[in-house]
Design goal:
eight-stranded parallel beta sheet, single chain, globular, alpha/beta
Length: about 210
């Protein structure tokens, strides 16, 4: 079974706390926090205050995904006692090693994400220091996009590298995944599946979560 991290980007923000409490009650593993700056990606989402506003509603850890140019500037703002992962983009960091180090210095697990067009080999020199690799299966910046099959070889690549090198990072995938196609990423070796619209807008959230996790 895979773990699941519903993205609050797809929640109803007029009743965000209620939506968060509801999905947390259904056996999810993380809440995925999608932060967009309008620079690295063309869309803007929300900042740390929104995340902190649901801290009392969340009974699972935060999985923070910073789609932000030079995210090292904002790491401390997303650190709470409920933050388990902070993930930054390889493509958005001028010094990825330093950014990963600073995340860890805040007592948080460090993740690195790669966009669909980025070769998986770019993380070769960082694998031993990363706690999470997030493979984007859509172009980052917007919800509701169609899943890209080209993400599957990347997941397999990071799975095989982990086994070959004896490492322990987790593999996460984000974009266009629901109960109808989650088996593809599970079979490729993913550990955590991000799902936004599929969960928050499902007529039966329990069934959708079960279908995604497998």
């Amino acid at each position: 079974m895979a773990k699941i991290a519903p993205s609050i980007l797809a929640a109803d923000f007029s009743r965000l706390g209620e939506d968060v409490r509801d999905v947390c009650s259904r056996g999810i593993d993380y809440l995925h926090i999608d932060v967009m700056d309008g620079m690295f990606v063309p869309n803007i989402s929300f900042g740390p205050d929104v995340m902190k506003s649901i801290k009392e509603d969340a009974s699972v850890p935060f999985d923070v995904h910073l789609m932000v140019t030079e995210p090292v500037r904002y790491i401390d703002r997303f650190v709470t006692d409920n933050t388990e992962f902070i993930t930054v983009h390889y493509e958005a960091c001028s010094d990825l090693a330093a950014t990963v180090r600073i995340i860890k210095e805040h007592g948080v697990k460090a993740g690195v994400s790669v966009k669909p067009g980025t070769s998986p080999e770019v993380l070769e020199d960082y694998l031993a220091d990363i706690d999470l690799i997030l493979v984007m299966s859509v172009e980052p910046g917007f919800g509701g996009q169609k899943f890209m099959d080209s993400s599957l070889p990347k997941i397999e690549y990071y799975r095989d590298k982990r086994d070959d090198l004896g490492l322990s990072y987790e593999i996460e995938v984000d974009g266009g995944i629901g109960s109808v196609n989650a088996h593809l990423v599970r079979d490729a070796g993913v550990d955590i599946i991000v799902a936004g619209s599929a969960v928050f807008r499902a007529p039966d959230r329990d069934a959708e979560i079960k279908g995604i996790c497998g």
